[in-house]
Write a structure and sequence with these properties.
Radius of gyration: 23 Å
Largest sheet: 5 strands, mixed
Bound molecules: zinc ion
Number of helices: 10
């Protein structure tokens, strides 16, 4: 009975945990234990999303001083921060904080899509904490507000617990669109692959023309996964903005159905 568990030509080495090579055990019980261990190798630090991201954001603010009133000598200690506002959010740098170095590109992409889909770029989701220090006020931290924080943690947990790329991708798509297209359910799994942009078929032509005109500046230097394509004719399902920016490249990376 246990034989069946290993009927598939699975990788012999399950992974290296704390310097110990974990192998596909010969005895059934060890094998199952190792399989669980493999699944649980953490690639995402979920709690990290609750941390301080002030270095992943651009913040605009004015300062005010009332040195005479406060009696500052040559060093000002009275500066206050006024109207602090987040002007941009660097989502890839937040992904770098959440995903460990060993995290695979597919998972990293799904985390990026979840953060984008749940609108982390919107300043309304962030709380700027201003503290008084010896030299006047300074920005102490910028953290995600609840309930957005809980919402993102739940999605990251789903990605972490997913055992296939298909499951991970569906978490990301649901975060962005709220549902999964029927056509996507048909495919067994998804993988990253390199293709020529000219091989990709544009389905929603009107939508594409619209985003093409918008000239998505935010993706100008994009060299990651461009979009999601399905079928042998590589029909573009998601990633129109990125595709419109990357379509003149020789080769692009996409997620394709298997
Ligand atoms: Zn002062």
């Amino acid at each position: 009975m246990m034989e069946q568990l290993y009927a598939e030509p699975v990788t012999r080495i399950f992974g290296i945990i704390n310097g110990i090579i974990v192998r596909n055990g010969k005895s059934g019980s060890t094998g199952i234990k190792n399989m669980k261990t493999k699944k649980n190798i953490p690639v995402i630090d979920i709690d990290a999303i609750g941390g301080d991201f002030r270095y992943s954001l651009d913040i605009d603010y004015a300062t005010e001083r009332h040195c005479e009133e406060y009696g500052c000598d040559n060093i000002c200690r009275c500066q206050t921060i006024e109207n602090a506002m987040i002007t941009s959010v660097d989502i890839p740098s937040i992904v770098d904080v959440i995903c460990y170095k060993k995290c695979d590109e597919f998972t990293r992409y799904c985390v990026n899509r979840v953060l984008t889909g749940l609108k982390l770029y919107d300043s309304k989701n962030w709380h700027i904490d201003i503290q008084r220090s010896y030299y006047g006020e300074e920005i102490e931290s910028v953290k995600l507000e609840n309930p957005k924080l809980d919402e993102i943690k739940a999605k990251l947990r789903q990605i972490k617990d997913a055992t296939t790329y298909k499951e991970k991708l569906f978490v990301a798509l649901k975060a962005e669109y709220g549902y999964i297209l029927d056509v996507l359910q048909e495919y067994k799994n998804f993988k990253i692959t390199n293709v020529s942009p000219s091989d990709i078929r544009i389905g929603a032509d009107l939508h594409y023309r619209k985003v093409n005109q918008e000239k998505s500046e935010c993706y100008k230097n994009w060299n990651g996964i461009v979009g999601l394509c399905v079928g042998n004719d590589l029909r573009l399902i998601d990633g129109y903005h990125r595709y419109s920016v990357c379509k003149d490249k020789k080769m692009i990376k996409i997620i394709a159905s298997v």
